[in-house]
Specification:
Elements lengths: L4 H20 L7 H5 L25 H5 L18 E5 L5 H10 L4 E6 L2 H14 L4 E5 L12 E7 L8 H11 E14 L5 H4 L2 H5 L6 E2 H10 L3 E12 L2 E9 L1
Parallel strand pairs: 1-2, 1-4, 2-3, 4-5, 5-6
Antiparallel strand pairs: 5-8, 7-8
Helix pairs in contact: 1-5
Length: 252
Amino acid sequence: MTRSPQEIKQAVRSRYARAAERVAATSSCCSPAAAESDCCSADAAGFGISAYTDLQPGEVPDAARLASLGCGNPTAIAGLRPGERVLDLGSGGGLDVFLAARQVGPSGFVYGVDMTDEMLALARANQKVAGVANVEFRKGEIEALPLPDAAVDAIISNCVINLSTDKPAVFREAHRVLAPGGRFAVSDVVARRPLSAEERADLASWAGCLAGALTAEEYLSGLTAAGFKDARVTPTVEYGPTAISALITATA
């Protein structure tokens, strides 16, 4: 059995819409979104908010922290500098956007792109709470980014690219919007082996960040084909018997 890109996209959108709605509706210190997501258990070291070991209480809005559904901390590896322009692919509740905005300072700027209305609403509400001016959240898909060519100096993303059904388009678009010499620094789930057609047909596994995962070799090949240089995949945390989380870096 195969799944259409539309079926997969809808399954992913629904999962993350529910996660955003649950975060927006709760003031609990325990994230219901993280408990909901197969992608990042709140109890697993290196997943979700646990990957942000230096995050201080009150540093970001609680709802941004609770909505963290990633598998790493891309802002820790991107080497962001004051004045730079940054793009977060699949920005969710805005956690990485706000952290990046602090690193680039008032002379820099950070864009967050997400396809889910509920996540965008949550992120924009979090922006008001945080009082961050050098940030803009845009609706869009990472396969067709709503930015012009060479618009940013760095791209970050946290466990989102695996959710796309057209990763070559994601890599091409990332390369297009990066300025020459720009940096690509993301956290993602990487498969230990090529996944079978049956494994890739599991919609819950797609939304849980596994069925769409590339192998390290596939990731490197895709980045190189899109024009990236010096691409590297660095394993970080065990995800399960078929996958790991990893840091992926490259330059445009």
